Amino acid sequence: MSSKADDKTFGTAEQSEPVSRADFERALRFVNSSHVDVHDMLLRLAAQVVALTDELVRRIDHVEPQPAQAGTPARDVNGTVEESVVEAVPETLAKIRAAEIRHTPRVWLELDPTDKYATSGPDVPCAELIHICQSRCCKLQFPLSTRDLDEGVIRWDYGKPYMIRQRASDGKCVHNDPSTHFCTVHAQRPAVCRKYDCRTDARIWADYDKRILATAPIAEPSDPTFDLMERVQQRANAVLIEDAAVYGAFPEETPRVGPAPSDGTRMHPRRPPSAL
């Protein structure tokens, strides 16, 4: 409430006032999370259709199943079909998601579920190597975590959420110093950077012991060695963490003084709440 002697108005803002990067990115995160929710519902529906089709084909072709035994919860044909489909959906859905990762990765929202401040990595002598490699690892692409997004220090690519943002000029992370090649946000660096070991990466070194760099351009492996099903589960965990952060409270950090409403209306200090 305001007093007669106080002409401040809290919580208002000019229509033309620029939106902060924090507010803008929160809005984008909400849109991205909503997209994931809708996309996930479509995939679940697709899994149900595939599972139902497979079950009906098996029955029509008399391949399986045998008639349900009397006394079982699914005594009739419809009940048996329904239970079979419900049982088959999780595995079918996981296979659809794994196929999507491999063949249409652009539709996936990438997130790292790792707690970066609980992550430790190998003791790579970066200071000794950087004059040779010139931070070649900073050209690698990787997803950020919800912690990175909440902190607002590490930048991400708005067109490929939530991949690390890179420069067009040299392809390196935007936080890399182009003159010294060192990271300028080392204390807030993502989990991937904390646990990464370049010494065994053929994209960086042709021969690490002899300090011979790889000559081929940086590129993602054409045949990833990660287990697709494991990646599906990791992403599901990351999405849950992100949803909790995005849909949670996002209060103003401090009281915000803004302009008075254009019509001059104000809350009278003695006006009872029932009269509002």
What does this structure look like?
A two-stranded antiparallel ribbon has the order 1-4. A two-stranded antiparallel ribbon has the order 2-3. The chain has 276 residues and is mainly α. It is flat and about 70 Å long. Residues 68-78 have low confidence and may be disordered. The chain has helices at residues 21-60, 77-103, 126-133, 146-151, 191-195, 228-246; strands spanning 9-10, 205-207, 212-213, 257-258. It has 6 helices and 4 strands. Helix 1 (21-60) packs across helix 2 and helix 1 crosses helix 6 (228-246). Among the domains are: 21-107, no CATH class; 116-218, no CATH class.
Topology (SSEs and partners):
Layout lengths: L8 E2 L10 H40 L16 H27 L22 H8 L12 H6 L39 H5 L9 E3 L4 E2 L14 H19 L10 E2 L18
Antiparallel strand pairs: 1-4, 2-3
Helix pairs in contact: 1-2, 1-6, 2-6
Please describe the structure with a list of short key phrases separated by commas or semicolons.
flat, mainly alpha, 4 strands, two-stranded antiparallel ribbon, 276 residues, 6 helices
